[in-house]
Amino acid sequence: MTNDIQPGDRVKLLGLPDWLTHDLPENEQIEMRAFVGQCAVVDEIDAYGYFWLGFGSTTEVGDAAHYSGHSFGVPREFIERDV
């Protein structure tokens, strides 16, 4: 496993593996494809070497917070360091 990108680094999503989206409803596939080309922070690198990214937003209302978006892991070849 390469160490060139670490948790906390900002990366650009270059694409999505077919296995990640092929079983999702069409509307979710469209949402996730819209993240390609966008930047995110690597939340973690799991035991399988997948880089976990989150795309979404948190809305706070009073003492409560609601997160809406997607979080998923991709192999290294689907990201590049954001310069």
Mean pLDDT figure: 92
Which structural class is indicated by helix and strand composition?
Answer: mainly beta
Rounded radius of gyration (Å):
14 Å
Shape: globular
Largest sheet: spatial strand order: 4-3-2-1-5
- The helix content is 10-25%
Task: Characterize the structure shown.
With 83 residues, the protein is mainly β. The chain is built from 2 helices and 5 strands, in the order E-H-H-E-E-E-E. A 5-stranded antiparallel β-sheet has the order 4-3-2-1-5, with no helix packed on it. It is globular.
Describe what is shown at a glance.
Helix content is 14%, strand content 43%. With 83 residues, the protein is mainly β.
Describe the structure using short key phrases.
43% strand; globular; 2 helices; 83 residues; mainly beta; 5-stranded antiparallel β-sheet
